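Reopening this ticket.

The earlier resolution said the output was attached, but the attachment link was broken on my side. Pasting everything inline this time so it's all in one place.
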Amino acid sequence: MRPLLLLTAAAALLATPIAAKPPEATTVAGKVAGTREGAVDVFRGIPFAAPPLGQNRWRSPQPVAPWPGVRDAGAFGHDCMQNPSPADEAPLRTTPDEDCLYLNIWKPAAAKADARLPVLVWIYGGAFIHGGTSPAIYDGSAFARAGVVFASFNYRVGRFGFFSHPALGAEAGKPVGNFAMEDQVAALNWIKTNIAQFGGDPARVTIIGESAGGTSVINLMTMPSARGLFHGAIAMSGGGRSLLPTASIETGEQVGVDFAAKHGIADKGAAGLAAMRALPAATVQGSNLFADRFARPSTYVGGFVAEGSVITDLSDRLMDKGQIAPVPLMIGMTSADAGITFAQDKEALFASFGAQGPALRKAYDPDGTAAFAGVSRALTGDQYMGEPARFVARHAVAAGRKAYVYRFGYVAQAKRAEWKSGAPHATDIAYFFNTVDARYGPATTAQDRKAAALAHAYVVNFVKSGNPNGKSLPAWPTYDRKSEALLQHNPDATATASPDPYKAKLDLIEAFATTKR
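Inline output:
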């Protein structure tokens, strides 16, 4: 019986599936092992910089320490320290932590290390105080299945990402304050150095971002330290004029001094810096950064600091000087996008536009019966997103590159009773990524998927060629000053191109923006 038992055991072993070896890649710091998910290889949680802890808090991203053997890249690293927003379109799937400088890569499983595929790099939004790479709608699998290597990275947000203080300037030998943007440049440098090992072409990198991520894309186009690190840009609801505050270094450092004083730290030298770095991460984060920004004294600078090396000036001023990366551009907004006003009624809203107020009233409230909320949303959305997108497109064209402008107006069928004014801010992301099922779950419809397939195809084509057009897609003309061409994604999941129907309104907003500067 023993031979029979041996034969039976051998047969059982042969019938047992052998687990596939995880996909591996070699980075400059060591090997990583990811996971194979169907036709896609995914590598999550790869460090692109040393943890920004202890002495590295409020310091430029430092090199990664090499590791021996093969590092497990099967799970996301922590999203960066923040107080997550319960209403976020892209809820986090990790516990935020100060140790967060990690990136992720999705690639076609069949792509070899020398494939030289186009690369798309995602920069998340969140007003520079929220956001991360772990949300399900940021999954890059659809791009990988379409032949694109997709990467996403974390960058420090809030007071960890934007902070100045005299002691920090003394330590660095120059004014500092924009660690979030330095993280972004560090990640792009990592991609330039390592992406070929994942089948990507470092000479065919496109960056894409939404909201604060779109603002980042626009600023990266003007930053000397980012020049040459990307070859195409997609800015979703990122504005384009410097309507949000960019603090002077003097203001930024005073905000840092006031933050330190709030926590009993008066020394402005090395001892004070050591004490600030010893503060618990939760203390640095605070409970409400918006309140801290507008407190008196302010203890959160609120965003960019014009410290002279990373952010050298306001992005619109730099573009007016011709300092814009000469790369093809896709840029636009949603049909019910976000804006900001402190006005409490229509009278105050139109008055805030000075001499352009009466004409804007006629354009946005012609018979005087429109509700304040709707007028405010439409006008400030165009002010913060629509007209600035056109402004950036014009500068891209002036730099000798093609620009493609859009308005995204599709609303998920399950949300139409709630979102009656159009597509709200950030709701286009799931369509560009083709992740609507992750966003809407069982409520996702065939028409939702059709709208996503269309939007996603334009993005894939743009990444591959710098031109979103392709077979079976409605033609998307390039932007120019004569035609003012615009592509609209419609509520019926189609897309149509036409001269910009919002031109007259945007011209009025442009006139106001020009007189303010």
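Reporter confirms the inline version is readable. The mean pLDDT is 95. The domain at 328-517 is CATH 3.40.50.1820 (Rossmann fold).
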